[in-house]
Amino acid sequence: MKIFLSIIILLIALLQYRLWFSNDGIEQIQHDQLMLADLKKQVEEKRERNAALYAEVEDLRKGQESLEERARNELGMIRAGETFFQVLE
C-alpha cells in the first residue's frame, strides 16, 4: 500500500510540475488568453467598420443625395446652372 501511495504522490508531483513550470503550462495559457482577447477586440472593430462600410454602400445604391455629395466633395463637380464659389482663408 505504501508503494501504491508513493507512486500516486509521485505522479501528482510530476503533473503539478508540468502544469506550473513547463512551456505549455499556466504561463502559456495566460498568454494565449491575452492574445485571444486582443484578437476578439480586433474582430469586433473590423465588424463595426464593415457594418459602416456596408451602410455607406447601401446608401450609395439607393440615394442620389449621397452620390451628389461625394461628387461635390471628392471630385469637385457641380450641377448644370450652379455657380461655384471657392472661399480662401
Write up what this structure looks like:
This protein has 89 residues and is mainly α. The chain has a domain at 25-76. The protein has helices spanning 2-21, 26-62, 64-75. Helix 2 (26-62) crosses helix 3. It is rod-shaped. The mean pLDDT is 85.
List keywords for this structure.
mainly alpha, rod-shaped, 3 helices, 78% helix, 89 residues, 0% strand, single chain
Query: Based on CA inertia axes, which overall geometry fits?
Result: rod-shaped
| Average of the residue pLDDT scores | 85
The run of helices and strands is: HHH
In percent, how much strand structure appears in the residues? Answer: under 5%
Q: Output the number of helix runs.
A: 3
Provide the low-confidence segments as ranges: none
**What's the β-strand tally?**
0
Which class of secondary structure composition applies to the elements? Answer: mainly alpha
**Rg from C-alpha positions?**
32 Å
Euclidean distance between termini CA atoms: 94 Å
Helix content: over 70%
- Give a short account of the largest sheet: none
